[in-house]
Design a protein that fits this description.
Blueprint (H helix, E strand, L loop, with lengths): L1 E6 L8 H13 L2 E8 L3 H9 E10 L8 H15 L3 E5 L2 H14 L2 E6 L1 E5 L2 E8 L4 E6 L5 E5 L10 E7 L31 E5 L9 H10 L3 E4 L1 H5 L20 E5 L5 H7 L4 E6 L12 E4 L2 H16 L2
Parallel strand pairs: 1-2, 1-4, 2-3, 3-10, 4-9, 5-9, 11-12, 11-13, 13-14, 14-15
Antiparallel strand pairs: 6-7, 7-8
Helix pairs in contact: 3-4, 5-8
């Protein structure tokens, strides 16, 4: 089986999720290729090769500076045909999901989005992914043509090392022509950190009692220079936006520190954060399921505990 992992660079920098996809691909066996598209792809390709990317295909072109799904799809399709690829993997970011759908349509293959598990089955691969709002885990298998899969970030470990080689790819110039033109790229405000990339996350649950108390948890996140997260319950209630949701139907995260404030610990939420290195839970219910996986548990009134923690961290860290 020939596998192609697509590294999705951003502003000329590789993502942690790129190396997670490589690790997932390595576990399947087969012949691994990794593709990286950028204005100057060779330096990125060298990093990928040093961390287990196998045969790394470097595609350089000014049109690949920013993600353009039409151009990416045409370039990757050319690589798929040239190298006889059976399985294509990429991170399940907004860009990655859009790309996988285009690739499947352009190449007559099957697509599976947001995979949480990959397993080799002879010459094929079985993908596990959530469906029906995360209430069901489905198994999807390729059935003819290349298989295109986006892999949910923070599920697999990052590939740290491994032998690889860089191959400079020359792609037909027409592949870099798209109907849409990127006029401007806006960067999200620093105040709203990307949950998938954050080392520290402080998340709120229904225990905060109402939207007027969201700021208490956000202040604690700010004092730790961390990102703000939320349980599905308060997202569904309309207290916070979906982009903050942690869980099987939101973001799967794997920070160094995860602080759960007023979160009981429903299985849907635990699936999305239980691999965090250190978990601190604050809840008034000593029997809350969150305490079963917490590294440290604080039983008490969050409206007293959280402001005290925030005051302490601001004094110690100067945040």
């Amino acid at each position: 089986m020939k596998i192609l992992s697509i590294a999705l660079q951003k502003n000329g920098t590789l993502l942690a999720a790129d190396f997670e996809v490589i690790e997932a691909a390595k576990a399947l066996g087969g012949e691994l290729h990794t593709a990286v598209l950028a204005e100057h792809a060779e330096p990125l390709a060298k990093k990928l090769a040093q961390r287990g990317g196998g045969k790394v295909l470097a595609v350089s072109n000014p049109a690949a500076k920013d993600f353009h799904d039409e151009i990416y799809a045409k370039v990757v399709s050319e690589l798929v045909k040239k190298h006889g690829i059976d399985l294509v993997l990429c991170p399940a970011t907004t860009y990655g999901k859009a790309l996988i759908a285009r690739l499947a349509g352009a190449n007559g293959g099957r697509a599976a989005s947001d995979a949480t598990g990959l397993k080799a089955d002879g010459d094929s691969v079985v993908v596990t992914r959530p469906t029906y709002g995360g209430n069901v885990l489905a198994s999807v298998q390729a059935g003819g043509g290349p298989f295109f899969v986006s892999v949910r970030p923070k599920i697999f470990n990052e590939s740290k090392d491994g032998a690889g080689e860089v191959v400079i790819e020359n792609v037909d110039p027409s592949a870099f022509e798209g109907k849409a033109v990127i006029k401007e790229v806006k960067v999200e405000a620093a105040a709203t950190q990307n949950l998938a990339e954050a080392d520290v996350i402080v998340a709120a649950g229904r225990g905060i009692k109402g939207p007027e108390n969201v700021a208490i948890v956000q202040d604690l996140a700010g004092s730790l220079n961390g990102a703000f997260g939320a349980s599905r319950a308060i997202v569904d209630a309309g207290w916070v936006e979906y982009k903050h949701q942690v869980g099987q139907t939101g973001r799967t995260v794997n920070p160094k520190l995860y602080v759960a404030v007023g979160i009981s610990g429903a299985i849907q939420h635990l699936v999305g954060m239980q691999t965090s290195k250190t978990i601190v839970a604050v809840n008034k219910d000593k029997d809350a399921p969150i305490f079963n996986i917490a590294t440290y548990g604080i039983v008490g009134d969050l409206f007293e505990i959280v402001p005290a923690m925030t005051k302490k961290f601001k004094a110690e860290l100067g945040a």
